[in-house]
Structure formats: C-alpha cells, structure tokens
Structures
1.
Amino acid sequence: MDSHAPQHSPRYMELATFMRTPWQADPAGLQVALAGVPYDGGVTCRPGARHGPREIRNQSTLVRGIHHVHRINPFERLNVADVGDVRFSRIFDHEAVLADIEAFFARIHAAGARPLTAGGDHSITLPILRAIARQQPVGLVHVDAHTDTWGEWNGSRFHHGAPFRCAVEEGLVDPRRAVQIGIRGGQMIDDGWRFSRDSGMRVIFIEEFTALGVPAVIAEARRVVGDGPVYVTFDVDGLDPAYTPGTGTPEVGGITTREAQQLLQGLMGIQVMGADVVEVSPPFDPSGNTALVGATMMYELLCLMAGEGAPR
Ligand code: MN
Ligand code: MN
C-alpha cells in the first residue's frame, strides 16, 4: 500500500475527513457518500449539534479498516468518500434549510450513491428521506430515546421531535416496516407515542429491550423491516448519557455502547439504503467521547452498507 494512503499514514495527520476517506465534493462514481449536516435549528431545548460533523470527523480519525466481527474492510469493498457538508442558502429560514438538505441528498441519490450522514439534530432526517425515499416507502430502524413522532410544536411541524411522523404522513416510511428502539423518558403529552403505536410502528421501550435481550431485539427488528430497503437512523441519545453525555436531550437509563454495537452488527444483511448518526452536541461533550461513539456507530453502519447482500 502507498505509504501516503489514508489507511497507512499516521492517523493524526492531515485534514480530518470522515474516517480519513478522500474528500470528493462530487458524488459521481461513489457507492457511499459520507456527508455532514451542520445544523441544529430544529432543536426544542439544548442546541449544539451543528458542531457534530466537525467533531465526528475529528474523532473518526481513530477508526480503522477491518471490522473485528464481520472481518470485512468496507473501505476496500466500497468506493466511499467524504462529500463535505450541506451548504445553506438562508440559514435562519428553517424550511429553506430543509429544502437545501433535500437538494444536497437528491444529488447524491441521483449519482447512485447511498448516503451515510452525520448530523445535526434529528430534523435533518426528514429532508434526507424526501430525497431518497420518494419512489417507494422505506423500512426504518430507529435507535433513540424518543419516537420523534410528535406533532406541531410552537408553530412548526419540522422540529427534531417530529421527523418520523412527517415521514409516515408523507409516505416516505412504511410504518409497518418501522421499528423504534430504546424509547424512554417522561413527556409533557403522549401524542408521539400514540402516533407511533396507532400508525403501526413497532416501538420497543427500554424496559422491553432489557427484558428481551439484544439477540431477540435483533430478531424482532429483522422481522419488522424484512427484505426491502431500510433506512437506519441513530440518535445518540438512545444510548445512556453515561456514554453519550454530549447531546441535547439526554435520558438516563439507556442502551450501552456495547449493546448498540451488538444490535447494529446483528443487522448485517438488511438492505441499508442510507443511514445517519444525529444529535452529537460537542458543546456538551468536553471529553469528546460522544463524538467518538458517533464516529464508531457510523463505522458500524458503513460495514452494514458494505456487507454481503447489500446493494452496491
Ligand atoms: Mn431523535
Ligand atoms: Mn432523541
């Protein structure tokens, strides 16, 4: 291997791209496009996730190639590059931002690449789904403390607590092929939980997660999403804040990093047509560990995208 190749040179060198992949703004020819959405205008409480992509890029320099369970090297299997961050035409106009995000991901989709994204708050997932799931509703694996199926809040339907309600209502996600994992925490109203249940989504609260154990949760998730295309969305607040304190809406009593890795590894073979890691908020993450967890989960997701049977 070329001694200047990213996987060979010292990992602390050069500009930080996601997992030290090449930076390539044009997605043409890529199979997976690593993208950043540095935006947190959809938060309902603590901001900071706009700084997520840069810190995840930085911590992702620790990621290596060969996965210790799957024994594959996704960087050899896939043509993958960092396509940079979404640029915003009117950054203080939330709905204009959503349109900019959609246009950015539509370009990736049109090039035939699958996106793997670092947010940003969870509101960014709706325009990504608008860009890549209009032709056919997709299945959803959603790790989060929150169902993110709430309705209008303070005059908008497009905050970070609502993307999956909008996605179901817009026909982007098939609720019968959607599973939400790790749900917990008190709420002001139970509208979101009821929407998820009544629309047919499979909601696995943290108590059921613990009672079932990870292997049975994997089996249930695989049953729900089946063989069709699936989008995987990973909110780091699904984990316990002992592991990911740097997030806007922490909820104690969550999933461990080990359980999350086991869960994602157990999904090998599902048809991942896109994925994201959201809600890493570096201002609340002085150790940098939340960004490292985010980068590690992106690597797990990249391995799923590179796995046998996955679309190439
Ligand atoms: Mn969320
Ligand atoms: Mn959440």
2.
Amino acid sequence: MALIEIAGLTRAYPVGDGELVVLKGLDLSIEEGEFLAIMGPSGSGKSTLMQILGLLDRPTSGAYRLLGRDVSRLSDDEGAVLRSRTIGFVFQMFNLLPRTSALHNAALPMIYAGAPDRDARAREVLELVGLGDRLGHAPNQLSGGQQQRVAIARALVNRPKILFADEPTGNLASDQAEDILRELRELNASGITVIMVTHEPDIAAHARRVIRLKDGRIVADERNAPVPAEAAAAARDGAVATATRPRSRAPARGADADLRPPPLGLAEVREYAASAFRAMAANKVRSALSMLGILIGVAAVIAMLAIGRGAQRAVEARLSGLGSNLVILIPGSTGYGGVHGASGSYSRFTLDDVKALAKVPHVLRAEGNVSGNSQVVYKDQNWNTQVIGATGLYAPMHSDAPYFGRFVTDDDDRRLDRVAVVGRTVLNKLFADPDLSPVGRTIKIDHADYRIVGVLPVKGSTGYRDNDDEIIVPLRTAMKRLFGKVYLDYIWIEADAPDTLDGVMDAVEVLMRRRHHLPDFKDDDFSQRNMSDIQAALTGTTKTFTLLLGFVAAIALLVGGIGIMNIMLVSVSERTREIGLRKAVGAARRAILAQFLIESAALASVGGTAGIALGIAVSVAVSRLAGWAAVVTPSSVLLAFVFSAGTGVVFGLWPARKASLLSPIEALRYE
Ligand code: ADP
Ligand code: MG
C-alpha cells in the first residue's frame, strides 16, 4: 500500500467570474520512507499541491488516499485531527509564535493532540535538532537557521509519518540551509517520509526522487537514488523520527483511527489563558484602553451599590432606633414634607393643638417642634446648621439622651433661656478639640449668645443627610427669640403600642379636622406619616434606585463589551497567520474558538477586576471624605466579576467564530 496515492487531482481557484485551474489532473504515488522534492517555476502549483497533500486544502476534483483512506472529503476538524497525528509542516517563514520560548513552540502541536508529557518530549526533539541549549529562547533571540530548526522540532513532536517542507531553506543563508537539509536527510534515514518543495536544483539534489511541475502538470518524475532498504524498513516498523518512539503506540495512530478532536483539556485552557495574557502584555496600552469601558462601568456600579446600600442601612438603623410608635403630623394635605394642598390652604399647628393631641386615647405623648437654618459661631469658626426648637419630651421620644451634659428642660422653655444642645458635627466644626466637653461654653446663634448645656448622641448619616448636623434649643426660645414663629412646623405623636397606632392616627385626623373647622367637602389640610410609611417610601426609592442602577450597568457593560469586541476583531485579523499556523499543527475549530473566547473573557475580567478595585476605592473615599456610609458587599463584587467575564464571552463570540472559521491556507497566506 502506497503512503500517498492521488489520481486525476485538480484544484481550481475562483478568480473574477471564471476560475483559474492551478492543478490539472495529477497522478502520483508516494511510498513510505521516500525523500521527495517537488520542483518547478514559481506559480506552477507546488505549494497548492503540498497543501492538498498536507490536508490543509481540498482538491476540486480527483481522488486522494492517505494511508489507504479516502481523505479528499474530510471535514475541517477531521483534517485537523489527522494532520496532528500523521503530518508535520515546515514553512519557509518558520511561523513560530512570537514572544514564546522554543520549548513552548515545539510543544504546541501536542496541546492540540491532547498528548501528555509535553515538556519532556519537546526537549527531546529540540535536542535532536541540536537546540538543547536554547530551550528558553524566544524566536527573536534565535538566528534564522535556529528558528527553522525549532520549526522542524515542532513538526516532529507528534511523531508524524510525513514531513512536509515548503521551501524550508528559502529564507536562510547557504550554510544554515546546509544544516537544515542535513537534518531533513537524517530524519528521512530514520524513517520519516519527507516531501519538500523547492525551486533550487542544488537543494533538490539532496532528494532521492524529484517531481517537476509545470503549468499544473507533472512533467518529470526522476529517481536519483532508490529508497535505502534500512529507511524503508524503519518506516514500515513505524520507528519514526527517533528511537524513543514508543512502539506500542505506533500502529494505533494512522488514518483509520477515529477522527474526533480531543475534548478541551486543562492544558489547553492554560495555554489559551497564557496566550491571552501574552497578547495583553504585548499590547498594553491598547488592551488597557479597550478595557476602559468595562472598568468604568463596573467601578460606577460597585460604588453606587455600596453608597445605596450604606444609605439604606443607615436609614434602617435610624428608623429602628426611633421606634415604630411614632407619627409625624405635618401641614399640607398631600405629598411628602408638607407640600401645600391644591386649595392653597394649609394648617397652622399651635401649642394648644399639642395639648389636645396628648389627650387622645392611647397617645403616650405629643410634642411640637419648629426648625430652621442658622449661622452658628464660636470664636473664629462658623457653621450653618439646622436648629430645632424642642421641649424636654423630645429626648425620650427620639432616643436622644445627651452623652455630655443635659437636654433642654421645660424650665428652660418657660424662661425662654438661650441654652443649646449641640450635635456631633456642629461640635467638630466649631471646636478645636471636639473630644473635650463643650458644656458651659458660649456660642453665637444668629448673633445671640447661647450657652451649651449638652451634646447629642452620635446618630450617623442617612445617605446624604447628616443626622448629627443639628442644634436643639428650647421650643419657645426658638419660636420667639430665634425664628419669630407663631406656629409649630410639625408635631410628633407617640402611641402607647404599635398596634394602637392606626386607631391613634384615625382619632388624630378627626380631632384635627374638628379643631380646624374643616367642612366635610374639604380634604385634610394636614397629613400624618408613621415610620412604616416612611420605611415604605424609602424602600420604594431603593427599588427605583436599584432599577436605575441595573440600567446603568447594562449600558456600561454594552459599551464595554463593544470595546472588547472591537479589539478582539483587530486581534483576530492581526493574528491571522498565527491562527493559520495553529490550525496547520492540528487545532480544530473548537480549539480556536475556545482560545479567542478565553482571550476576550480574560480581557473583560481583568477590566472588571480593575473596575471592582476602583469601585471599592471610590466607596471608601466617599465614606471617608464625605462621611456617607458605603457598604461593599461580597455579592456585588462577585456579581460584577461574573458579569464582566460574561460580557467578554458574549462579545467575544463573533470575533472568535470568525477566527475559528478561517481556512488554514488562507490564514497562512495572509499578509
Ligand atoms: P508555487 O508553485 O509558486 O508554490 P502556488 O501553488 O503557490 O505556486 O500557486 C499556484 C498558482 O495559483 C499561482 O498562479 C497563484 O497565483 C494561484 N493561487 C494560489 N492561491 C490562490 C488563491 N487563493 N486564489 C487564486 N489564485 C491562487
Ligand atoms: Mg510556493
């Protein structure tokens, strides 16, 4: 049985409307152990023939049997598997992976074949071609001849039966060319069939048989020397390339074995991840810029989530501290914060209202307040803050027991005393040493002297609102001396138990309508909110916020994904030759697809990780500098990472598919 058998083989390229017939019906038979040179003028179809013989290309018509098997109609992937088991290639342009060690380059075909012990075998073949001392050198650290010897080692690493070499010495100086030819001769002597394309007669003289092509036809077939008996015997035994080839494996590999590509292994994934990071390192600025979209999007989402979560927690903590029995009565019929009713009327709350409300059944206590913003000054420091006028009831109703000094009392209130209880933030702003008790010192509030009698407990911030930025003065002092107000701004009512709250609110409504003489056809000119109303309102805000955030995140990931897709398309077209080479040494479509998907996922997850770091930094900075609570949860970090990697996969699909569908010869011919 001949190793290679072709009959009536043609190959035509479509050109314009017609076609260019390059091979015009070739018949050829090649035995195991031959050393064949294909010669002919440039453009005569030598490379085309070699690519068909090497399963990189398919004939237009005619028969091709390799090892007795009809291979003219193999699929791309079957061709790749058969190639990786039986064929090695050496190209004129070497086609080594740049920035990659000789050892790794030589081992590459074994990754696609799913073969074990790659490093040991790659070292063995590199030693065989005399490069045992250059294992760690990258192609740009090797001479042309050495690079071609790495390429030969790579062709040998899977123990092929046939070695194809397309003008292997075309790019080499003559002494290096001699070395390469000697190498090929020795390999042939050890049993490998060598098929070499050349157009130089003195190189063809090394071969035992020379075929001349002209205009797509074989015009001569000369034998310089017969196949020496020992080479033929070596080839028949399958003792190919080196004596180290395990004999037991030899008969199993051949054209009749199952031609399914091996499943994606860990080694392959590692190789692709390494290749992804090599590509990133080689194009640092470009990769960084293409990650920017994802980075900024993820950082923004992480920071916003953290701040939102922080605000929510603070609000919840504050609300739970307030107790669930409180109702606030505010002027105005609708909306939050006392928006005036449509009629333009709004209620005026008096101290008598408070007294009446305190007598409603199940009301524990009721307390009216006024508030406004004032300028406060201590020595040369000044600060604008909220001043609340309150009575002694305020402290127990709002869990506001002072931690320095005392709260305002009813006596203060009766005497219209200028005394103040200050919040922590005010203390920080006015006093050089806020840890010292300021009790007894005098500050100015709107140009009048007030004596500090106490300090409020620290309450923290709820989102953007700082609950410690306030001063409490006696109610009547605030109304008469500070703000000149006759009416109360709002009234707090406390029910005696959570389950009497609804009844209390109903009774309050009836009472207030009566006290304000509202006829039946008029709406309330006041409104009440209890803590669960406020909580529900806040939860609603949080939901809207989360939805908005999801939308922002989706847009950010879309923009980031398009950035990644763009750079992956560039990367695929830049590395077309590399893809061609990987396919030539046995990569199936699936392998190329996986490589580029892993690359874009790696790009996106590096961007995402940087974005997470930036987002956490921003959250920490915001909570340190602005005093907002920011809580970064592990789940938001995990989510951001998964989503950014997922974006890489989704937006990498198209470029990766494009790469995987490239035909190996077109990719190799790509300039
Ligand atoms: P050589 O003998 O120099 O190796 P080739 O086999 O590379 O020649 O090419 C043979 C002919 O086929 C040339 O005339 C070339 O222009 C043509 N050819 C090769 N590849 C293509 C292609 N993809 N499309 C059209 N024409 C092609
Ligand atoms: Mg050629």
